[in-house]
Write a structure and sequence with these properties.
Number of strands: 18
Strand order of the largest sheet: 11-12-7-14
Strand content: 25-35%
Number of helices: 5
Length: 254
């Protein structure tokens, strides 16, 4: 994506935010997010993401994501959420509300952000980018699954490709974006039939997210881990007796 002086007016986000301190901030009005983007890139994203998803996103979001949609609509929703989360997590994203901007969660600033160049092209998302969605009422419960995400994948020539994760939760929908270069993911909720991967495996025509079990937005805990060689697989490690302790520290590099 090309950078330019003119900021892209990003998505109008909700008025309830979870911050890095994990304390909710309730704002009296919606806020805007500004992203540096040139006009051609802005127009390309409008055509590729906003226009195909606009009607179905408005219809479902207005009803806490309850209601049926076609397979193509669910995939359009997945593409839209991929765009939204990649831009919200980008280090250059700036929230109009300064308090939200100060505390909001972004991608790890110590590593290059996920590839966003595809957002302004027609090539589609990279194979190592996934978007999952499950039904939630924002229940505050302990996680039932732990997924150990490497900080980076190491190629045979020693090149590092960094992993990133970001979650957006709103009543009725919890959306997780994961950039996992060099690896694959066996998502436990998908295996149980309690979540969908939207970019490549959207659900069948007529699927209704609200018909799925309502789970906590914290049901899956993504644990930052050591670097791994390419070819790794992220699997559920909730049977590991040590993981609740590691959750306390947020990493297994203790």
């Amino acid at each position: 994506m090309h950078s330019a002086r003119r900021p892209r007016r990003g998505p109008q986000t909700a008025n309830y935010f979870a911050t890095e301190t994990d304390n909710p901030f309730i704002h009296s009005a919606r806020t805007r997010v500004l992203i540096p983007a040139c006009e051609p890139c802005n127009n390309a994203m409008e055509k590729q993401f906003e226009s195909p998803a606009k009607d179905v996103v408005r219809r479902l979001a207005a009803n806490n994501w309850a209601g049926s949609a076609s397979r193509d609509e669910w995939q359009a929703i997945g593409y839209w959420f991929a765009k939204v989360l990649l831009l919200l997590g980008h280090p250059q994203a700036r929230y109009a509300n300064p308090r939200i901007d100060k505390f909001t969660v972004r991608f790890d600033a110590q590593a290059p952000p996920p590839d966003c160049a595809w957002l302004s092209k027609a090539a589609g998302p990279p194979a190592d980018l996934s978007v999952w969605i499950h039904n939630t009422a924002l229940q505050e419960t302990e996680p039932h699954h732990v997924m150990r995400v490497p900080r980076a994948a190491v190629s045979p020539d020693g090149t590092l490709a960094h992993c990133h994760e970001l979650i957006l939760a709103t009543p009725g929908a919890c959306v997780t974006l994961l950039s996992h270069p060099g690896g694959t993911v066996d998502h436990p909720l998908v295996a149980q039939g309690h979540a969908w991967e939207l970019l490549r495996s959207p659900p069948a025509d007529g699927s209704d997210l609200s018909a799925m079990p309502s789970l906590s937005h914290r049901d899956v805990f993504w644990l930052r881990s050591r670097e791994r060689p390419t070819g790794y697989t992220i699997t559920d490690e909730s049977n590991d007796p040590e993981w609740p302790l590691k959750e306390l520290f947020g990493t297994d590099e203790i």
